[in-house]
Amino acid sequence: MIDASGPRVLKGHGTENDFVVLPDPDGTVWPESRLDPALVRRLCDRREGLGADGVLRVVPSACVPDAAEVLGDALDECAWFMDHRNADGSHAEMCGNGIRLYLHVLLAEGLLDAQTARAGVLVGTRGGPRRVGLTTQDPAMPGYWVDMGPARPLGRGEARLGGVSYPGTGVSMGNPHLVCLTDAVLEGLDLTTAPAVDPVLFPDGVNVELVNVLSAEEGPAGTTAHVRLRVSERGVGETRSCGTGACAAAWAALDAGGRSAGAVTVDVPGGRLSVEVSPQTTVLTGPAVVVSSGTLTPSWLGWSRG
Ligand SMILES: N[C@@H](CCC[C@H](N)C(=O)O)C(=O)O
């Protein structure tokens, strides 16, 4: 018999940006000393482990040692904290697909009720507090919105890929992005190695989006635009989607046309996201899916039975 006494685990995704989710409702299951970078890498390994682009630890903010530092006065308003790790074990400040899945898991695990989720809850992240809410409870494809805060320009840069330079705009969505608007055929790009960027502009690394702007037009309800992208994520490599990257790309596509607001449809390899940009904030909407739930095997973890 398989030993099922190990810690609970879920596997899920948002537009195919996939995560191992570790519920830690009282902060005792996954202290930092246990969830070290080596274990994160093993969990995310697609052969040795469960396989994922990252890990989300679902934990009360009060149980996270650095939460007070990153949340400041908002600490008391953020009951829950999204403790995010990239597949290489590094921390990231923010994750737009992950935070939708995070709310989905709070609901699925009975840690939050649907009425509260519909109204929206503040979740702590290392990029600051973010409000997340439930839009539709369709069991086939539940939808969530996230108030991601305003995009912040970081200056011009370039990504070098396959001997070609792609000029881009640095954008912070809490985490750093370099958005390169291009007419290149995205399917033709080789993203098996990360694009080279200027380390002086991005000392902590950067997520790089290669973006085709398909349309941008004025209508009775304001500006609408449609973009598609591929992304090479810091700490992961190419992923099927990036929520913060979709927001950065939407902002950059509008900004390139001299616009500061609009509704942008963002097609990613793993599906479709919607982004509402305004000078005040950025709202990301998209699905979240739980694929499976169960337990991690203690012997795989190297935990002896006590
Ligand atoms: N896929 C995420 C972003 C995850 C963090 C990123 N790799 C970083 O290091 O900043 C998203 O959906 O936003």
From TrEMBL:
Signal peptide: none annotated. Its EC number is 5.1.1.7. SUPFAM superfamilies: Diaminopimelate epimerase-like (SSF54506). Gene3D superfamilies: Diaminopimelate Epimerase, Chain A, domain 1. It is found in: Cytoplasm. It catalyses: (2S,6S)-2,6-diaminopimelate = meso-2,6-diaminopimelate. It is an enzyme of class 5 (isomerase). PROSITE patterns: DAP_EPIMERASE (PS01326). Pfam families: DAP_epimerase (PF01678). GO terms for molecular function: diaminopimelate epimerase activity. Substrate binds at N17, N86, G96, N97, N175, N207, E233, R234, G243, T244. Keywords: Amino-acid biosynthesis, Cytoplasm, Isomerase, Lysine biosynthesis. Pathway: Amino-acid biosynthesis; L-lysine biosynthesis via DAP pathway; DL-2,6-diaminopimelate from LL-2,6-diaminopimelate: step 1/1. The active site is at C95, C95 (proton donor), C242 (proton acceptor). It comes from the Bacteria. The keyword Oxidoreductase does not apply. Coiled coil: none annotated. The record marks H177, E233 as: Could be important to modulate the pK values of the two catalytic cysteine residues. Belongs to the diaminopimelate epimerase family. NCBIfam families: DapF. Catalyzes the stereoinversion of LL-2,6-diaminopimelate (L,L-DAP) to meso-diaminopimelate (meso-DAP), a precursor of L-lysine and an essential component of the bacterial peptidoglycan. Homodimer. This is Diaminopimelate epimerase. The lineage of its organism: Bacteria, Bacillati, Actinomycetota, Actinomycetes, Geodermatophilales.
